[in-house]
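Cross-posted from the bioinformatics board.
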Amino acid sequence: MSWDSHYALLALPVLARGLWITIVATVLSFALAAVLGLLIVLAEMIPSRTVRTLVRGSEHFIRGTPLLVQLFFLYYVLPYLDVTLPALGCGIFGLGVHYAAYLSQVYRAGIAGVPPLQWEAARACNLTRTQTWVHIVLPQALKPSFPVMGNYLIALLKETPILSSITIMDMMGEANTFGDLHYRYLEPVTLVGILFLSIGLLARWVTGTVYRLLSNPV
Amino acid sequence: MTATLIDLAVSMGRGLAITAWLTMGGCALALACAFLFGLGRVSERRAVRAISIGYIELFRGTSVFVQIFWLYYALPAFGILLSPMVSGIVALGLNVGAYGAEIVRSAVGAVGRDQAEASTALNLTRWQSLRYIILPQAVPRMIPVFGNNAVELLKATAIVSLISLSDITFQAQQFRIRTGQTIMPFIVTLLLYFMLYLLILHGVRRAERAYALPSGNRPS
Amino acid sequence: MQPLIRIAGLSKSYGSSRILDNLSLDIPAGQKVALIGPSGSGKTTILRILMTLESIDSGQVEIGGARLFDETATGPAYVAERRLRPIRAQVGMVFQHFGLFPHLTVERNIVLPQILNRVASEPEARRKAMELLDLMGLADKAAHYPDRLSGGQKQRVAIARALALQPRVMLFDEPTSALDPLRVNEVLQVLHAVARTTDMTMLLVTHEMSFARNFADRVLFFDHGRIVEDGPPDAVFDTPRDPRTQAFLRLSSQGE
Ligand SMILES: Nc1ncnc2c1ncn2[C@@H]1O[C@H](COP(=O)(O)OP(=O)(O)O)[C@@H](O)[C@H]1O
Ligand SMILES: [Mg+2]
């Protein structure tokens, strides 16, 4: 047995349908991660040791345990707590929370990179704490974070096939179902790999271009 | 109740052993690939460089999830049948090794050019320069990042449960199906992974200390 | 007599700028040569080529009768590594920025290259290292790591490390110009002592004119990748013929 182009061609439209779900899940969960990640960093500013320890601890826990198990947890346990989310909702929430724990690190590094003099200058300009954060610190902290965030966006994209394990029909879900139907996985699974490779290259190009435009506005 | 707890403990214990083997096997292969292709990436030979770049891009570009499934479900189309364990170790090792290769490359690149030039001036061979001058300075830089990769590998081992390897995650699922309980098996599972995670962090910290670059006086 | 170093028709460019311009030069064994001239005139480049660290566009270099380059379709290329190593064994170099190995102690910096080159056993290599460190006035620093040394101490370790391999040719590229002015003398004294006590061939790039005069049997003045003045120190320093040399020496004597 070897590569069957005709069969591969049959699989393509099915995968395209899954690709749509993959993209929706990637965009939504990354948006969630970006916001949650920032909230995590800001929550740490609350002057309370308990809060800080709790935030840091949860972050470690989320980064230290497999996304798959976290998704299973959401998918199988939430219904027992009378929370009903559709599978896709579970998936997006799980991915978003997981990557928030990474993006918070990125933000933190960005904030640490803002020179102390900037804080002092803001103080000298008589800005309030909030004004200092919004107008002085965050703009300078976020800009160098963008390329790293781009890397995480691509990493998140490549983790979406895991969603198929909680019955979401993303590209991988479609590929597996199609394979199950015909007892033949080579073509659909290879095509998924090729599609990821292409999207990754495209995304790298897009994020590179966006970052270039942001760093030297025309 | 106690019977259920014993059941849980026994199956989780079995799963833990499988997860530990997968992680160690995967890390060993990843480490080998990281050095092989990371150094290949900066080789003088074009062909070696091209092969290394191809490997790195291929395995970083196509999700580890897809790779595991490909090895287990698609490879048989070419008459190659791998057990779930072997599929898992090979896919995890090759995938994380590709990320590791980039770490090796950048750590070696971060050692100053003057070090390679001084080695040439002292008539060391390329191998001697790599072995005694460049790597001892590059390895300490690699260790913390390798540690992060080991954690990623540990977490990715859970995927192998989907190709019916009876690791922790698989055992939790089986237990759920057997008993209808959900909260307990998944909490235990998360805690077990978290424990392994802390273990890796601890190991990395020790390795960092063991390989730390000297600074200041050596007690004489 | 056959010169130890023979450089013939050497040219090298970076992009459109010519770094070495059809340069030819013979150096007999044992000669102490000072290379002087404005910065950017190609002095470092010539030393780096002799140390096989830099490619060339055309020409040939021989050390001890052995060629460094093969003619290929794309111009001269260094001969195979296997043939290059015995040539390199005859040449040592001291860099402007030391190039000490930060992960090795001072002693180990000197011992390891000897062992890897198989010129000494471990105990011999250590004895040699201590002897040289003594000569450099650094015996008490043997167990230190380089980051704890001053620039002058680092450079003396680098000199000891190169000498330990007993090369026939030593190349010094501005060994004192990265140093604190107060530390310059300690290195110059060591260089002077080495120059007086060995029959090694030495090429020294320096901006220390009075030292160059004391140290050298022969002075080369470089300008724009050419040698524009070549002679014994007294002749070059006291009665330079080329107007560029005259101008340069006038400027550098103002600086001193
Ligand atoms: N890697 C390089 N790329 C481009 N130009 C270089 C490079 N290395 C040296 N040069 C140029 O070559 C010229 C000669 O350099 P060098 O031999 O270091 O001069 P010197 O040691 O006499 O100051 C300088 O103009 C320098 O800018
Ligand atoms: Mg120079």
